[in-house]
Amino acid sequence: MEHGSEKDPANATFSLTDEDHTLANSLRFCLNQDLRVNFCGYSIPHPSEARVNIRVQTTGDRAREVLKDACEDLMSRSQHIRSTFEQAVADYKNQQGPKPMDSD
Amino acid sequence: MESTDGGDEERTTKGSAWDLPDLPTGTLPPHIQLQKTRVVCNKEAPTNTENVQYAGAYAAAGVDNTVRLDDFRENFRVEVIKLTEDDMEFDLIGLDASIANAFRRILISELPTMAIEKVLIANNTSVVQDEVLAHRLGLIPLNVDPRLFEYMSENDTANEKNTIVFKLHASCAKGGSRITVKSEELKWLPNGSEFLLAKGNSASNQDSKQKTYTSFSCSQDSLPEFADNPIAPKHADIIIAKLAPGQEIELEAHAVKGMGKTHAKWSPVATAWYRMLPEVLLLKPIEGDEAEELVKKCPVKVFDIEDIGRGVKRATVARPRNCTLCRECIRGDGWEKLVALRRVKDHFIFTIESTGALPPEVLFTEAVKILEDKCERVITELS
Ligand code: SF4
After folding, report:
1. Best to test chain A binding among B111, B274, B348, B374 (most A CBs inside 10 Å)
2. Least CB–CB distance from B53: residue in A14, A20, A29
3. What does B22-33 look like in DSSP terms, one character per residue?
4. What predicted TM-score, i.e. pTM, was given to this entire model?
5. Where do the domains of chain B lie, and which CATH numbers do they carry?
6. Cα gap A92→B299, rounded to integer Å
7. Is the confidence metric ipTM above 0.95 for this complex?
8. How far apart are the first and last CA of chain A?
9. Domains along chain A with CATH numbers
10. Mind listing the pLDDT tens digit for each residue in B160-176?
């Protein structure tokens, strides 16, 4: 799934199957946030093929590692979003809790 | 948040290069800060709609444009506004649009539910054709937790772990009046299909029991999940067909697990959407008749009038959250100089309407989990 990096591991295109804008766009955000990244972008070569190509060009680090770090970054962000959300829902339910008991 | 909005700056201010400090100060000049954090809605079209994601975008000003994980952890907030059995509205604050959009896309198309996929029609003399009837049945939301079931792939046989069977038998007596067939007539068959397979192909293994279209190894209602929670359509009053005297429908419906990207009937949400938080600012004090006019202009009552003493009436922004951005308030001469309409780029008002299989708060947590799984899959592939 990694292409074009035989000579230069810092520039590579990663071809992910069964993925679309959902993951690629969020990953592009995370890659853009990484100062080691010179350029990144993604494309979906054909709409009826479930595949997305992510291009990563770095300042020297291996593109593969940088993309992996971006995934880990996105994952930790998601985990934080999930725990914050669950906490907020629990708080909301606690606040609303006494209400149904009061009303007959 | 307050420090980042550059809100009091007049909207039309364009910083001159000569006014910029000689050395980078580590903060963005207010007009750039405004471009970065707000969509500005002008009379003709919105501007600054793009998100500046690149980490080094403001390197020249000495500003790092990254939201580091620690900062994100510190600043990200969720506020639940409304939560009922089926609907939910909440604010996600401090998040990039790409991630909010990922959740929305997953909610609509990648969260599995159970829906009727196969309909075996024994008899249908109603005016609704078989295929239309099957389609209508497919769209009925089922009140069952999809996490308790497995996907059925092409070569799988239907068993108690991947299929739910309903039967529907309705007839309208001759000489009576017309009847309406509603979703409550779908009766759950915990033991699986009752229709027998044609004899021919099972001649070799002459079991004591004749084979049906499913092979359940046990009854679904003996499973603890369903024992006191029988499976049924979420709503009992969905109209499936109408029968005239003498007409009859007899069928069996098989529900399987699937995802919204295959067919919308598997989508767990009626819809899921977000909008950016509207920000309405009055650039100058608006008083007297002008204030009255402004209040009248807005169809969703964003503005109110306050009395500031001595009978002077001044307009205030009372309910900016209601703003639909119809831009009615900036129509007409000069109004654009008085009212500024903006949207906060990292504040999303997220709404989820569940179809009923799972409560909306569970749907969102499941959506986040799916994004995590996607990342994990890529990490394993890269390792
Ligand atoms: S844009 Fe429309 S909804 Fe928003 S404040 Fe102006 S008139 Fe009201």
Report:
1. B374
2. A29
3. SS--SS--HHHH
4. 0.88
5. 1-111+268-383 (3.30.1360.10), 113-266 (2.170.120.12)
6. 31
7. no
8. 62
9. 2-95 (3.30.1360.10)
10. 899 999 999 999 999 98
